[in-house]
Amino acid sequence: MELLDRKTYYRAFQSHDARFDGRVFVGVTSTGIYCRPICPARAPKFENCRFFASAAAAQEAGFRPCLRCRPEIAPDLAFWRGTANTVSRALALIADGALDEDEAGVEALAERLGVGGRQLRRLFKQHLGASPIAVAQTRRVLFAKQLLHDTRLSMAQVALASGFGSVRRFNETFHDLFDRPPSALRRKIGADTSAHDGVTLRLAYRPPYDWPGMLAALTARAAPETEWLEKDVWHRRIELDGIQGTVAVAHLPERNSVAVTIRFPSVRALPAIVARVRRVFDLGADIATIGSHLARDPRLAPLIAKRPGLRAPGDWERDTVGVAVDNKAPPAWRPWHAYAVQHLRMASHG
Asked: Cβ–Cβ contacts within 10 Å for residue 226, how many?
């Protein structure tokens, strides 16, 4: 499914407008590549552009990801939350590997969500422009591409971590998509130290981002035996399926990103751990839209202006925000109230 407001999106690509990063991807018919709005390459001709709501939609239409702007590190955008909670829940399950097997998994996924398979496919087409299977396949490819670029994990480990059933399938997928083996995409970044230092990945967000505010909120609710801060780096002990490890998250303000270092024995768990980090640090928030809505309240407007980029932390285990929410508020406004509570609490402490 293509986006229709082509002129607006084309202007965003011409100006490399970061506000559209993650909101739209352009497929260039003359090259067969799809890019982010911030791609440093010269803007293609208007008539050669097709615009998509997600990387999965672009990839399903036959385009391959750009090697320069790297769609795999574009910030996520949860624009469908609130209007399609089923899609939000489905994406969380897909990140945990719910569709790493085959098409039959869509029916099982739909059953877990309490909807029919046809309804789930319709919702995905409506909000993401691609089928659940295409979303899962794109997730695997882009996560594998990021691991190839940013880590020294072996090809077998990358394939396993990305949800591919075998190294052979992994190699075939990359050769079909990029017309080259996955090893050709690997950067020379030194020796493999992942066993000692962990796997470090960069996750992007949309600025502004109030990192001190996020750390303060996490510290206020942290269990000392589970979470702690050390030199402005957040650490957490984790356990998945009885296996224990740790996660550390540091801020990279100059790159509008966080650096996540994961030390965990099973590489299969990497996507699930990354998804939880995104949730805890609310990396998919469209803070400009949130701020504009909250600023309509004259009591909140000065607080928002004082602390731009303040986000509410999510919960590691559940897809919720870690602040009190007024259950008497209308359901559609509860997420806004959660952010308002967070703004009021943090601003009152300076």
From this structure: 12
Spell 73-91 as b/e; 16+ CB within 10 A means b: bbbbbbbbbeebebbbbbb
CATH topology of domain 85-185: Arc Repressor Mutant, subunit A (1.10.10)
Condensed to tens digits (0 to 9), the pLDDT of residues 107-148 reads: 999 999 889 999 999 999 988 889 999 999 898 999 999 999
Q: Are 148 and 182 in contact (CB under 8 A)?
A: yes
pLDDT in tens, 147-171: 999 998 999 999 999 988 889 999 9
CB 117 within 8 A of CB 140: no
- Do 76 and 284 meet the contact criterion of CB atoms below 8 Å apart? yes
* pTM confidence score: 0.80
Proportion of the chain in helix, strand, coil states, percent, rounded to 5: 45, 15, 40
Task: State how far the Cα of 294 lies from the Cα of 288, in Å rounded to an integer.
Answer: 10
Q: How far apart are CA 158 and CA 156, in angstroms?
A: 5
What's domain 6-71's architecture?
3-Layer(aba) Sandwich (3.40)
Q: What does DSSP assign to residue 84?
A: -
In sequence order, what are the residues at sequence separation of 6 or more whose Cβ sits closer than 8 angstroms to the Cβ of residue 346?
210, 213, 216, 217, 307, 310
Cα–Cα distance, 321 to 333 (Å, whole number): 14
Distance CA 135, CA 22 (A): 14
Contact, 185 vs 149, CB < 8 A? yes
Q: Name the superfamily (CATH) of residues 194-280.
A: DNA-3-methyladenine glycosylase AlkA, N-terminal domain (3.30.310.20)
Helix (H) or strand (E) holding 248, with range, is strand 243-252
Q: Classify residue 280 as exposed, middle or buried by CB count within 10 Å of its CB (0-12, 13-18, 19+).
A: buried
